[in-house]
Design goal:
The longest helix is centred in the N-terminal third of the chain and has 32 residues, at about 85-115. Strands 3-2-1-4-5-6 form a 6-stranded parallel sheet. It contains 17 helices and 6 strands. It has helices at about 5-25, 25-50, 55-75, 85-115, 120-150, 165-185, 190-205, 215-235, 240-260, 265-270, 285-290, 300-305, 315-320, 325-335, 355-365, 375, 455-465, and strands at about 310-315, 340-345, 370-375, 385-390, 420-425, 445-450.
Length: about 475
């Protein structure tokens, strides 16, 4: 197949990638966008096989079938609560693929050079070193992120004296190894030394980051995997890989920036600040809650809802864990049938990955128009009769309004305490990821409805219909 046909196929794939990415910006077009991206990737794969003269139909069909089977099994068996972990692993797989492909190409081209063939150029060598460095950081950083999300590794920041100096030394060693790869490509052991040091750097970068920052970390690692893929594209001189990797890298950086702004923090603060460490000066929960927490029942909340005109839900990771989104939809439909206006306040970092709550609610066919971002819904809370906080904690904690003194100081929150009545559905008074108490639980206008999120919501649906 001619080079012009291959490049045309790559151009078509790139257009489909961009078109698909645009479709993913809205739930109504997300399925179509995903399909367009998949078609673009299929075209890119087939064009690459043709360019490499790997045209065995049986081999191609077997490869496609194996990939489709693995994808189908994952799609059907992975629970939404485990989706952040899966996304983290996908980022890691992209990183390790870049490391192995770039390393294999280096061994191949240096073998050819030893036999009298052309030596690799500076661009290829720099790209190879970049693939090894970024890919290894991505893979092992993603494994740590997966471990934190899965509970295998502690969700708390792991801090120690001199950690920043250690990271700088390890990063410097990795860059030095990369320079050796470029200057001495024949000594291929330098590449694997680079990959080993970068692997350690990936672990050191993610371990000090708390669980509350995992949505940002996942977005950042997604960007890293794209950058590693783009670098590998330069190693292979593959246009489609360069374009697709650049798209992933750019979109990941943009999303990371959006998430950081939502928390009023810089990326450097996320990476080096150890968010989630408990400030010893913060008042204790026992002192904050003593004699002030008011417990309620499903029947009492149902009667309050019956007299409301406007109700807002604020979902959090607790809703995902309890799988309470179905009774949430049922209660929403029952209230709307009575003429009550219902919407949802979505904090950008609610859950454990970007858009976590949006996906959960969209699966229940809850209209996307009802999902309102923090800046949109905050001005309306004073005119809201009831806010139901389901499984959220830090994103509604008024302590964030303090300029300093606690781990979430300065983070924009959903101002639910401005509503007439706040109902918090939670198993206990335990703190969120930040590890600090929440004065919202002891506020005058707050009622605590204790129990498993799904069971409580089912009871609330039943009580509302009987009220």
């Amino acid at each position: 197949m001619s080079a012009s046909v291959i490049n045309t196929a790559y151009l078509l794939a790139a257009v489909l990638f961009i078109w698909g990415l645009k479709g993913l910006t809205h739930p109504k077009t997300a399925v179509r966008g995903n399909l367009l991206g998949a078609i673009g990737m299929l075209i890119a794969i087939l064009a690459t096989l043709a360019a490499q003269q790997i045209l065995n139909p049986l081999l191609i069909i077997v490869g496609l079938a194996a990939g489709a089977l693995i994808g189908a099994i994952l799609a059907l068996t992975i629970q939404m609560t485990a989706m952040p972990q899966l996304v983290g692993l996908f980022n890691g797989f992209g990183g390790i693929a870049s490391v192995l492909v770039a390393g294999a190409v280096l061994l191949q081209v240096m073998g050819i050079a030893m036999g009298g063939g052309p030596r690799p150029g500076m661009q290829e060598l720099v790209a190879t070193a970049a693939s090894g460095l970024i890919g290894a950081v991505t893979f092992f950083g993603s494994l740590i992120a997966f471990g934190k999300l899965q509970g295998i590794v502690t969700e708390k920041p792991v801090r120690y004296t001199g950690e920043q100096i250690v990271k700088i030394i390890v990063a410097g060693a990795a860059i030095t190894a990369g320079v050796f790869v470029v200057l001495n490509p024949g000594e291929t052991q330098y590449y694997w030394i680079l990959a080993g040091i970068a692997s350690l750097l990936g672990i050191l970068l993610v371990m000090p980051i708390g669980g509350a920052d995992m949505p940002i970390v996942i977005a950042l690692l997604n960007s890293y995997s794209g950058l590693a893929a783009a670098a590998t594209g330069f190693v292979l001189n593959n246009t489609a890989l360069i374009i697709s990797g650049s798209l992933v890298g750019a979109s990941g950086i943009i999303l990371t920036n959006i998430m950081c702004k939502a928390m009023n923090r810089s990326l450097a603060n996320v990476l080096f600040g150890g968010f989630g460490a408990v400030d010893s000066t913060t008042i204790s929960g026992d002192e904050m809650y003593a004699g002030k927490v008011k417990s309620t029942s499903a029947e009492e909340v149902a009667m309050i809802l019956k007299t409301a005109q406007r109700v807002s839900f604020v979902p959090g990771y607790g809703m995902a864990v309890a799988r309470a989104q179905t009774p949430v939809r049922l209660l929403t439909e029952a209230m709307e049938a009575d003429g009550i206006s219902v919407d949802f306040g979505i904090h950008p970092v609610a859950g454990r990955m970007p858009g976590h709550m949006n996906v959960l609610l969209a699966e229940e066919n809850i209209s996307y128009d009802k999902l309102r971002e923090m800046d949109q819904i905050n001005p309306d809370f004073p005119n809201t009769d009831v806010v139901i906080v389901l499984g959220a904690n830090d994103v509604v904690n008024p302590l964030a309004r303090e300029s300093s003194g606690n781990p979430i100081s300065g983070m924009p929150i959903l101002n639910v305490d401005g509503a007439r009545t706040v109902v918090v559905i939670k198993r206990s008074l335990s703190p969120g990821f930040a590890g600090i108490p929440n004065p919202l639980f002891a506020a005058e206008n707050t009622l605590m409805l204790f129990g498993d999120g799904k069971k409580v919501m089912e009871d609330l649906v039943g009580a509302y219909k009987e009220a």
